[in-house]
Hints:
The structure holds two protein chains of two kinds.
Chain A: H1 9-14, H2 16-21, H3 31-41, H4 43-60, H5 62-69, H6 113-149, H7 151-165, H8 169-179, E1 183-184, E2 187-188, H9 189-203, H10 206-220, H11 224-231, H12 236-272, H13 284-291, H14 300-327
Antiparallel strand pairs in A: 1-2
Helix pairs in contact in A: 3-14, 4-6, 4-14, 5-6, 6-7, 6-9, 6-10, 6-12, 7-10, 8-9, 10-12, 11-12, 12-13, 12-14, 13-14
Chain B: E1 21-36, E2 42-58, E3 62-66, H1 73-80, E4 88-93, E5 96-97, H2 103-109, E6 113-116, H3 130-141, H4 148-159, H5 176-188, E7 194-198, H6 206-223, E8 226-230, H7 234-240, E9 243-248, E10 251-257, H8 258-263, H9 268-275, H10 282-286, E11 328-331, E12 334-336, H11 348-359
Helix pairs in contact in B: 3-4, 3-5, 4-5, 5-6
Amino acid sequence: MTAPIEVTGSELEARPDAVLDGVRKIEGRSLGQIALMRLRRDKLAMTGGVVVILLILMAILAPLLTAWFGHPPSQFHQDLIDPNLQRPLHGPWHSGVSADFPLGIEPTNGRDIFSRIVYGARISLLIAFLATLLSVVIGTVLGMVAGYFGGWVDTLIARAMDVFLAFPILLFAIALGGVVQGKAFGLSGNGLRIGLLVFIIGFFNWAYIGRIIRGQTLSLREREFVDAARAMGARAPYILFRELLPNLLAPILVYSTLLIPTNILFEAALSYLGVGVSEPTPTWGGMLSQAVPIYSLDPWFMIVPGVAIFVTVLAFNLFGDGLRDALDPRTR
Amino acid sequence: MTTPDSEVVADQRPAGDGDDALLEVRGLRKHFPVTRGAIVKRQVGAVKAVDGVDFTVRMGETLGLVGESGCGKTTTGRMITRLLEPSDGQIIFEGQDITHVSQAKMRPLRRDLQMIFQDPYSSLNPRKTVGTIIGAPFRLQGIETEHGVKRAVQDLLEVVGLNPEHYNRYPHEFSGGQRQRIGIARTLAMRPKLIVADEPVSALDVSIQAQVVNLLEDLQEEFNLTYVVIAHDLSVVRHIADRVGVMYLGKMVELADGEGLYNSPMHPYTVALLSAVPIPDPAKRKGRERVRLQGDVPSPLNPPPACRFHTRCWKAQEICGTVEPPLVEVIPGHRVACHFPENAPEGAGAKVTKAAEEAGLTEQSG
């Protein structure tokens, strides 16, 4: 990278006076800013990013959105249900889609699918984000410690990673979901279920990112700026968190964005299996599982949560891939 | 800079070194263990990277350490700055033994003992601005600054010939030479007394090398610095160093002032090394005899007994493989570790052999 050009073309046209004055502030462009510039040029990743932001906004604004466009997520509308076939009376393919219900209604009890999708996004994203945060924190700290200190510390942590990678997490989750009922750890009801899901998904996934961070730390530790810091009298925490961590932000960011969709899928799978958050709280996985026995009569009820999961996972993956390309162009 | 509870070493310097020694290295060794076995590690050998090196660095001088790759010069530098723990021997800095001082007690001493690194592309953290990088020593060591850290950093940037306004820039925006200047500025922030410069210019373009070497010389004058310059480039060392030590396979084979070493090298290895320096002038080149060494450098895992160089030396005799030649001052200011030195006065080799016998350095086996 040669010396940068402080004023880009568009800025030149926008503020010709700045050039005429010859007053240019010398401000460096950080590697992060350069990566952001690269990311902006990646249309696919930007589309993914926009969808991700819209999804997050949707989850945050769920009460407002349902008030404007729908009905409360647990309100029954059995007057719109065919009492014999248990499917909606109206709408194309008996989906129940109408001006009043933009995404139709559920079979049997006629709850508003739009509201349930919007509220389901809250649960999905909350669990996915919290679980990712947990994995990333544990994985980063242990990975850095293992990579930097080496020796028996490394051996211990690396073996622990092997154990976690080999762990039958799905079976464990189902078993734990059955055992932890009612009240535990000062939590109850949905709080407990969410906490449990975050713990299971987050705690058993740290080894993946831990390995990546350990490998990166192993190579970074040999760089001379680490020796320089030691020669200046820096202690290990300073070197780990001030010297190494900023250099690990790129892989952390990339693997977080790629871990989130995995966790969304995992949460949906657990909800589908009945381990997740219980009725009447809406979740995407739970909706899918309710739709399965009735899909031949009412396929629409299965398509909507399926598409929601698909779009969310795709958007996060596109954004994550774009982010990786932007932060490390060599991998392309 | 002495901590009260540190070990103060009695004055027992070898004669002829004067009293102004800033750094003294005695019998310094670094053996890297080679281990085998997955669970129970057992040592099967050791890489003898540095195997008994003695030298003294006087206040205000520049000592050059030269030798080919793998001869242990970088390891020596890293032990002096205590980035590596010595296996054996002593490092005495300002009369204080710092060989095995704990990292906590070493911390205040690090202000006086700094290092310039070889690779300007890896010695600066790419995620930090120049201001943060050069300002780090102030924060880490809690150095008081008169007008704040930013001002101090900008002063340092000016000292090393960079634009102080580049404070907010990142290392990737600079060229190799500029980066090396940033590294030098960071080193200077602590106002050290001794700087170990590990191949300070070998990663730079030749045209930039001269600039950085000259900068180092100017700074030495301005800040009264003492340098240990590690290099494999003999011309760089010749330019900057007052005294030069030649290393081969973890041993110091010759130590002399620059003039003496370059004009009348005594150790056959030094002779070979100097004859390998290209001479740009074809007319001068004609009269010169090239010494071509046979074979490769032996492995430091299993170095040859006695004189390390005898396997490749054209002057080697039986004694070279049995009696290890110590580093002996054969003429004032010129030390050599060879039984049969070149360009030496009559009896110089005998002096070395005699010293070896007195010290009982006869090699028993491997």
